[in-house]
Amino acid sequence: MSTLYTVREGKNRGKQITLLNPHEKAGKAKYEKARGCHMTNAGDVKRDERGKIIPLTNGQKVYRAGYVRAHRDMVAAYAPKAKKAAFKKDRAALKSGRIEI
């Protein structure tokens, strides 16, 4: 879940900013790629000085696609490890008699 922070130092002191965790950052990249425009961390569309929506360049679209793909690969690599660890924990509990079937 995104978190709202207040900057305490520097030129933006007192300004509210939104920080994203890695899962939210991947979701933002996926959403930006699908929409084809820049978004803020709060979910608003970024606009230029004239009020026009700022589109993504082809390079930015490719970067976001790569970021989403890398995040998907990371999750796919983590899931089997977590499942295996949970299985070992359950099996140990069965052997020790803490869990009955």
Principal-axes shape call: elongated
* Tally of separate helices: 2
The secondary-structure element order is EEHH
What percentage of residues falls in helices of 4 or more residues? 40-55%
- Total beta-strand segments: 2
Structural class: mainly alpha
How much of the residues is beta strand, in percent? 5-15%
Q: Going across the major beta sheet, what is the strand order?
A: 1-2
Mean pLDDT: 83
| Main sheet: strands, sense, barrel | 2 strands, antiparallel
Tell me the distance between the termini.
Answer: 37 Å
The parts where pLDDT drops under 50 for at least 5 residues are none
Using only C-alpha atoms, the radius of gyration works out to 21 Å
Structure description:
The chain is mainly alpha-helical. Helix content is 52%, strand content 8%. The protein has 2 helices and 2 strands; from the N terminus they run E-E-H-H. It has helices at residues 22-35, 58-96, and strands at 3-6, 16-19. Strands 1-2 form a two-stranded antiparallel sheet. Helix 1 runs antiparallel to helix 2 (58-96). It is elongated, with a radius of gyration of 21 Å. The two termini are 37 Å apart. The model has no long low-confidence stretch (mean pLDDT 83).
